[in-house]
Amino acid sequence: MRQDPRRRFTCLVSCAVTGWLAVAGVARAQIPLAPSGGPTDRVSCAMTGLGVVGNPTIRAQTPLVPYYGKNDIRYDNFKWHIYTTDHFEIFYYPEVEPHLERVASYAESAYQHISSELKHDLAIQVPLVLFKTHSEFQQQHIAPSYISQEGTAAFADSERNRMVLPLDYPPDQLYGLIVHELTHIFEYDIIPRSLVRRGHPLWVDEGLADYMRGTWDALDLMTVRDVAVADVVPRMTKFENWTGYGGGRTVYNLGHAVFEFIESRWGKEGIRQFLFSLRKSVIGGGENAFDEALSVSADEFDDQFSNYLKERFKAFRDKERPTDYGRDLSPDPEDSPYTGALSVEPAPSGELIAAVVGNRKDQEIDIVLLSAKDRQVVRNVTRGFDKDSGYEYISYPMARGNTVPWMAWSPSGDAIAYFARTEKQRSLILRNVVTRRVERRFYVGTVDAPESPAFSPDGKTIAFAGLRNAVGDLFQIDVETGKVSQLTNDTFADSAPIFAPDGKTIVYLSRISGNDKLFRLDLASKERTQLTFGTHDEGAARFVNDRTLVFPSTALDPSKPIDPELAQDGNIYNIWTLDLSAGTLRQYTDALTANLSPIVLPAAKADEPRRIAFVTYFKGEYGLHEIPLAEPKLDVASSDFGAPGPVIDFQAPLTHALVPANQRRKGTFEKLFLEGRPPVSVGITSGGDLFGGTQVMFADVLGDQQFSFYAASISQYRTLALGYHNLSRRLTWGGQAYQQTLFYYGLQPGLLFDPSLSPFFLDRDDAVATRTSTGASLFAWYPLNRYRRLEISGGLFRYNEEFQDPQLQQLSDEYQIAQYGRRLLQSGTLVPLGISLVQETTIFREFGPLSGSTVRLGYEIAPSIGDTLSRQSVDGDLRYYKRLATTGVLAFRFRGFKSWGDVPDFFFYGGNSELRGYEYLEFVGDSGFHANAELRFPIIEAMLTPLGVLGGVRGTIFAGIGGASFDGRPATTAFGQPLNETNPNAKFRFWDNNTDVVRAIENFVPNETGSYTPVYGEPREISGFRLVDGRASYGVGLETFILGFPAHFDWSWRTLFNRDWEDALYYLEGLFDGGKSGSDWFREPRFSFWIGYDF
Q1: How many Å apart are CA 491 and CA 507, to the nearest integer?
Q2: Per-residue model confidence (pLDDT) at position 24
Q3: Amino acid 7: pLDDT
């Protein structure tokens, strides 16, 4: 979850979570990769208006992104306050207030540290927005919701210099988090961000932010050591992003190492000079930052950094690599879509291993069963998309990563327990490993961020770690009743519980004095005992037997002196055991990178020791290896690392005393400002009309109160709107005032005007009609869950419908009044009230929908109030996407509309992906539908061109059918003329299978009125199935991305499924086009080009 620094948000991804997913080929995004500002950026955006009925907002006539979006739900009612310090405006709510003084101390300490290091001060008070927990942090409205998903610890906003973070981290890690994000604010001030200025590499922003923290996380250092020893150090001066090796966190970590290199060669002043030289090069006018600040060329800098990194980690080259442990038990990525083994759990029998792996096909993480004898995948327990299992995604520990377990296997061996995201909190899932069915689910709503489940030996309870009041503790849940009880209640961050074989005690991790140490909890007396000591970290433990623990640890031999720098560059997790009776510690591995998540497997033979399997990391990939628990490399006493002593809690360098006078309630509309750069969307219809739009938004610092100005155009017709949207509650509401002009082609002679004015004498562009609406509306949206919501609306608007040609308008008025007793194109005032149900479960990829469904059902009524007009309308849009193979899609859509009353509404469609092969907006009616079926498949995944790597090419095989009618009469015929002169008022018939006698129109002759009269040919007998007033088409197409926009090249063939009928209906068109038959003319292939996303 990393945003490019030239974009708006910079995030800290905790403990390489994104790195794991990138290694595994997993992308966490569940929205379409649309251009910024599209309707998928915020479901709650008041101006998207994608619906027709029941949507209070105006709609784009042809939206670039035709999706409704999932819901970003505000589950909690935050009562925001502001507290000011010397350098910060801290936004908080009452539940955060107990932590306010501590966080203010951290923030001011961080400011002084960064300011003194960079010799730079900010001219503003930095807005610091605090959330108590990550589940509440995910409800923020400052950034698109995907920015704050699990895996993102915090983020900083380059446009308005806001910092946004939750508090549920141990004190030392929370301070480091604040330093990291505040460093970004300093970077934004030193190096301006703009669309028109040159960018700079991501490693600069993230590397400096991690460098300023002054510490290395063991798993971060692991990736740098791996890059150095594997001799794949990239050329940092040309290093924009890390697209594979080592995953997303490698960008941060290499940048961190770069700034340590600069300090080692040029001192801290060299870092400052580099940043300010980079400022010059970014805004223009400066030399290359490396030449100007460091007096070396870019190539020399790259070479020197590579040599520095290799020399720095030279001492580790001879340490153990995964191949030294034998075979890799993780899935073979060449034989399966699964990559890596992020966390593992043995079956009670020891014959199978459950592993959390990346699924390249689904771009999600899955739990698979592996054979402990070979690396074969026995079963994918969580097969399919996560949404189909009733949750958003499988959750993983945040800050602790794979140093703690992610799942547990039941003692009976028939179920696996893991946590998954469901609504605000996580749920504990019990899944049968044989049937794959979810047997039980427990919504753990009273505990934030639960993780690391562990079954008791009798299987009746499950212990887990979680947060209450932003502090980590241990809990347990009764499997029978679902009751949750708290096991620990202290100020330390407790995690990774595991039951002893007798079920009387639990061994777990607790963070004290800045390190994770093992403790034992007596369940009866609640007495806790520290088991490991020292200034290093341990990971989660497992019981080898009732007296021995196995666990990862960064401990080093306490009897040997070691260079402090070498110790810091090591910080390597290795496999250790602890004899609980004798207090003896034994080391079994001496890894180059890290060995994590050990599990116990049975001995290969009866006379051999038990085996220990563990997660390894090498050359950017996670693996699974095993060793026998035989001769240790090191045997020491636990007391050699120390003994219980006073707990030294983290203290900020500066202490801030809370000043009550600086606290106040935030005003509802306080601190409104421009919300980012106005987004721009551009498209082209299949009729060649250029469309586009932009939106200027003002919002408060929290993003809860939004005022917007929306402007869009298609052809020469414009839409303007002013809106307000309140997002501070689960029920979001707002209002808008607007003026909008839509256009369509009213080329329906015999329906809208006299049949004598046939298309033979009128051009399509002569029959352009418009609908201009001016009005205001109020609306409210209530999300039922992540995927469904209700939309209600009410408003008042005046509208006018007319042909652009005044003469045609006059003729049509006369004709419609004579035929229908009223105008079909209306003018007047309406007071509509609407309600809609929207469902969006679709999973998207960069090209559009991949799997899932979309439903929108709407009803609108405009009652007659005084002189206002009345009508009722229903509208339905149903879509279903079935994935084929990896990125193939079978897509279906049905869209229907019906309006009735004094002045029925009407809709118009055609062209683009609605009904290919027909003219853009060719179909108009107060009732109608169209249905589509498409097979979409990849042809070329990516193209290497002189311009760089461009988007791939996808193919489409499509078919569509539809029709529309006005007042029960057909809205589309050839030349608008009936084929039976004895029945000029025939009713709409979509299809027919009966035998009819018709007479084709073969000519037009002038009459005494100055108009033309059709000349009918001889009677023809038409039999067999045919579309009478319906229309259909089929064809093939290609899709690719041009400048980031989806471009479509379609070849279509129209059909009515009956050549005799087509010959009669389109006789004149074929005659005038070289004497072809009507069917040959109608079925000629038609090419269209358009830009926009598929339905």
Answers
A1: 18
A2: 36
A3: 32
Crossing angle between the packed helical segments 100-118 and 171-190, to the nearest 10 degrees: 50
The encoded tokens of residue 10 equal 């910079």
Cα–Cα distance for residue pair 63/68, rounded to 1 Å: 11
CA angle 1083, 1085, 1087 (to 5 degrees): 140
968-995 residues labelled b (16+ CB within 10 A) or e (exposed): ebbbbbbbbbbbeeeeeebebebbbeee
**Residue 147 pLDDT exceeds 70:** yes
Please state, in angstroms and rounded to a whole number, the distance separating the CA atoms of residues 349 and 608: 17
Question: Could you tell me if 653 and 112 are in contact, meaning their C-beta atoms sit under 8 angstroms apart?
Answer: yes
Q: What percent of the chain is predicted at pLDDT more than 70?
A: 90
pLDDT at 32 over 50: no
Helix crossing, 100-118 with 249-283: angle to 10°?
A: 60
- Is 512 within 8 Å of 492 (Cβ atoms)? yes
173-203 burial: b if 16+ Cβ within 10 Å, else e: bbbbbbbbbbbbbbbbbbbebeeeeebbbbb
Cα separation values, 487 from 406, 509, 542, Å: 19, 13, 19
In tens, the pLDDT along 173-223 reads: 999 999 999 999 999 999 987 644 456 788 999 999 999 999 999 999 999
pTM assigned to the model: 0.89
Q: Is 222 helix (H, G, I), strand (E, B) or coil?
A: helix
What pLDDT is stored for residue 41 in this prediction? 32
CA distance 35 to 680: 8
Contact 456, 480 (CB under 8 A): no
Name residues whose C-beta falls within 8 Å of residue 641's C-beta, 6 or more positions apart in sequence.
532, 533, 534, 536, 555, 558, 585
Do residues 235 and 302 lie in contact, with contact meaning Cβ atoms separated by under 8 Å?
A: yes
CA–CA distances in Å: residue 946 to residues 238, 841, 919, 949: 18, 39, 36, 8
pLDDT score at 50:
30
Domains of the chain: 195-318 (no CATH), 322-641 (2.120.10.30), 673-1091 (2.40.160.50)
Looking at residue 994, the DSSP 8-state letter turns out to be S
Residue 690 has pLDDT above 70, yes or no: yes
Residue 1073 CA to residue 1075 CA, distance in Å, equals 6
Task: Compute, in degrees rounded to 10, the torsion defined by CA atoms 606, 608, 609, 610.
Answer: -50
